[in-house]
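Just wondering, does anyone understand what follows?

——
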Amino acid sequence: MPLEFNVLGLEEGQKMIEAAMKYTKANDLPPMAIVVADKAGKIIASARMNGASPRYIDAAHRKAYTAAIFERDTLGLIEFWGNQERQGHRGPHDWNDRMFTSLPGGLVVCHGQRGGNLGTWDVVGGIGVAGDDEKAHEGAVASAGLEALGEGFRHRGDWS
């Protein structure tokens, strides 16, 4: 019997990108890079707004990847890694994955509740936002992208 799971598709990815860019422009924020990834952290859709540094697309991908793979927002990972380090682990260094990041601006995208290994919301992907934003609006931009998907979609800071 083949494995079955839900993932984000191109249409949802593009919808999220458009909403995130609209939010950025409406709030007069600096240009951002936005990446939407599937459950495996692979890019579905991405955009680098005019004026955003090319390196931001890589940072946004790492944020989307990390949120999807770890199944929680990147801000939640900061707390998780802090607890791990207090127990003697070296945090992200011990995970052997150069794509992992603890930078804020990555949200896990959840939809539905079929149970899964944690008995909570099904993870379908992630969204990551990066830009030259000293006030750290990246999380709000990512939230605007997620909200564009409508009812039934959410994110989470931890595994609950």
Q: What stands out?
A: The domain at 10-151 is CATH 3.30.450.150 (Beta-Lactamase).
